[in-house]
Amino acid sequence: MNARWCLLLLMYLSCSVWGIACAEPDSDSRSTEPSSETQARTGTARQANAAFSAQRAFALLEKQCAFGPRPPGSAAHRETRDYLFAELQKYANSAALQPLEYKVGTETLHLNNILAEFGPGLPPVTGKGQNGETLLLAAHWDTRPIADHDPKPENRDQPILGANDGASGVAVLLELARVFKAHPPPRRVVIVLFDGEDYGRTADDMFIGSRFFAQNLGKWKPDYGILLDMVGDKDLTLPIEANSWNANQAFTAAIWQRAAALGLAPFQQRLGPAIMDDHVPLINAGIPMVDIIDFDYPYWHTVEDTVDKCSPKSLEVVATLVISIVYDGL
After folding, report:
1. Beta strand 224-229 with 238-240: parallel, antiparallel or unpaired?
2. At residue 41, what are phi and psi to the nearest 5 degrees?
3. Is 172 helix (H, G, I), strand (E, B) or coil?
4. Torsion-angle region of residue 144: left (phi > 0), alpha (psi -120 to 50) or beta?
5. Coil, strand or helix: which one is 169?
6. For the residues 22-51, what does the mean pLDDT come to?
7. What is the pLDDT of residues 236-269, one digit of tens each?
8. Given pLDDT bands bounded at 50, 70 and 90, which one contains residue 33?
9. Which residues make beta-bridge pairs with 115?
10. 202-214 b/e with 16+ CB inside 10 Å = b?
């Protein structure tokens, strides 16, 4: 990734994020064809797009919500952890739980980030991918224990279902995990499902899992990454998140240019608000991260963040962009 920053910056200057998008890439029509051995063990963006099922992804969103609200410390939280870990184990080269304890007042939370790695087929990938890059794809799997933005005061101490705020990003990544198994990507991909993102009443007790991960990267350290948060709502709008832009303008511009080249209308070529989210601890650790998030979601942190507010099409739009980046690079 680092070797391409100058080129990306030139692309940004000549093909502005505010202007006309660059031509759409297509991994099936590159001028240099991969060897037959590489073709046998890696997939293409076209194959992956054909394999991705928006309906399966939406069913994964529904499955998470069937556990009920999933705040740390609840039975639903433990059941969801076991389900997500088992799903990733089906498809990944390797998967692991990253346990952590976090004290809030007199309470000790027992949390788990859920980690999985994917890459080219045999031999198994234990390091970086073929082109020397490791791409992180992330979302948070916990839900908020309080509906503090609900318009009804009597609801504000209730936990939220988190159909969009939590389950949507996880659903995209779980379905992508299945696709990666069928069509191994040409680079190493690490999926991380963060725990404890939405726990606290203030930011001091939020982003718990991502802060821990950023301090304990080990073999999971990526070169760059993408965070998916609130990407499933029916009226999807995805402006450029300002913290991502301020930290890594060329990288962020390249992602929105790719979305424009793919004709993905929800990705808007304008700057949105700066969001505190799980990407910030990783940015602070020196890892280029971009947050794909629809923060203009009227049911955020309310009891109305339910399945009926979400759409398979929105999940598909976001997956289409991620697939292009995974298989074609930037």
Report:
1. unpaired
2. -120, 5
3. helix
4. beta
5. helix
6. 58
7. 999 999 999 999 999 999 999 999 999 999 999 9
8. very low
9. 96, 192
10. eeeebbbbbbbbb
Cα–Cα distance measured from residue 168 to residue 125, given in angstroms and rounded to the nearest whole number:
28
Which tokens hold the place of 89? 């184990």
Contact 207, 199 (CB under 8 A): no
C-alpha 149/C-alpha 126 separation (Å) is 44
Joined tokens for residue 150: 């609900």
132 pLDDT tier (thresholds 50, 70, 90): low
Q: What angle do CA 26, 323, 22 make, to 5 degrees?
A: 45
The single residue listed with the structure tokens 């990938």 is 125
Domains in the chain with CATH codes: 38-328 (3.40.630.10)
Q: Locate tokens 């001091």: which residue?
A: 204
d(CA 77, CA 167): 12
Q: Which tokens hold the place of 85?
A: 């870990």
Q: What is the 3-state secondary structure (H, E, C) of 240-302?
A: ECHHHHHHCHHHHHHHHHHHHHCCCCCEEEEECCCCCCCHHHHHHCCCCEEEEECCCCCCCCC
Asked whether 253 and 8 are in contact (CB, 8 A), the reply is yes
Q: What torsion do the CA atoms of 75, 81, 84, 86 make, to the nearest 10 degrees?
A: -100
